[in-house]
Amino acid sequence: MTETASPYPARRRVGLWLTLGLTAAMVAGIVGLAMATGWEESLASLRALTLAQLGVLLALSASNYALRGLRWHLYVRVLRIPLSLWQTFLHYIAGFAMTVTPGRLGEVIRLRWIWQEAGTPPERSAPLVVVDRAADLAVIGLLIGASVAFSTIGLAAGLPVAGFCLAMAVIATRATLLSSMLRFGWQVLGRWPRLFVRARRAALALRPFSDWPVVLPALALGGVGWLAEGISFWLLLDWMGAEVPLWTAIGIFLIATVTGGATGAPGGIGGAEAAMVALLSLQGVPLSVSLPATAVIRLTTLWFAIAIGLGALPFALRAARRGTHAAQS
Q1: Of 115, 105, 82, 93, the residue nearest 316 (C-alpha)
Q2: Residues in Cβ contact with 191 at an 8 Å cutoff, skipping those fewer than 6 apart
């Protein structure tokens, strides 16, 4: 009797080809627009950047990942999972290697590493993924709201985005509210009772993360981290000759980030770039600046995160294998 091949390798190949296709389409679109507006002006904007300035952009992005890594460790401690700061930080950074998977679902590999090193099953550590995403949505929503309030030019379009982020963050982290919504959903559908029971159990597991001694430092860490990347975008535009106010630049960067993520595309590829160029154009920034600026900021944020994630991935895998061997011995 022949064995049936596992579908997972095929699914991974589909995800890889989807990511490559979206990346190629995004690059082709930027190159095509740059050619239409003239290579010389776009290249001149790029030449205005120095290596030191690129180093500043990368340092600001790195600070975002470091602060969010500390937040991940805070959440791990809330669940009383016996892992050190170094272990949780390595898990978080290495997880960025999976950012380009559809919907960033590949980042749940962090739960597998926790299982291998601490013996904590994914059913217990699953709330980490939910609260981490919810915390990002919360701080991004608050920062977009601040950008709308403080922007001298105006970003009224950011209000629905901010409202969406905050609403999703509240729903995802309020255990009682989420449990009630799941119960209502089961009453309406009347199907899959076991699935709804498991989902309600997972929702109730979010309760410890709603305490203010957890919420406030988590918001502070994430808020400063995302603000650093918004400031890096503002600095980049200034260095390339575009006079965009600070809070307007921060708002454009974060609105584009949420827009890209809402598409479900790996890493928000395509959607984030299109939104960023469009919002900059509304502020009067010419394509000769908005196109290279978009390309650079995505390289120093999304692709930089993937690069450091790939660099940390072998160490995380090695540590996980050691943890598995120790548990079996």
Answers
A1: 93
A2: none
Cα–Cα distances (Å) from 103 to 112, 143, 216, 275, 280, in that order, read 18, 23, 27, 18, 26
Which pair of structure tokens corresponds to residue 203? 């929702």
Token duo for residue 227 = 């603000």
Token pair for 167: 């609403």
State how far the Cα of 120 lies from the Cα of 18, in Å rounded to an integer: 33
Q: How far apart are the first and last CA of the chain?
A: 34
Q: Is 269 helix (H, G, I), strand (E, B) or coil?
A: coil
pTM of the predicted model, to two decimals? Answer: 0.82
**DSSP annotation string for 155-190:** -TTHHHHHHHHHHHHHHHH-HHHHHHHHHHHHHHH-
User: Domain extents for the chain?
Assistant: 49-79+126-306
Note the pLDDT of residue 104: 63
Structure confidence by residue, pLDDT tens digits, 185-219: 666 666 666 666 666 666 777 788 888 899 999 99
Helix and strand numbers, DSSP H then E, in the chain: 15, 0
Q: State the helix-helix crossing angle for 246-262 and 212-239, rounded to 10 degrees.
A: 110
| CA-based nearest residue to 289, from 229, 236, 234, 240 | 240
Amino acid at 77: R
Q: What single-letter amino acid sits at 250?
A: I
How crowded is the C-beta side of 77, counted as CA atoms within 13 Å?
A: 13
Task: Compute the CA torsion angle 21, 303, 131, 78 (nearest 10 deg).
Answer: 140
Can you tell me the distance from the alpha carbon of 126 to that of 103, in angstroms, rounded to the nearest whole number? 16
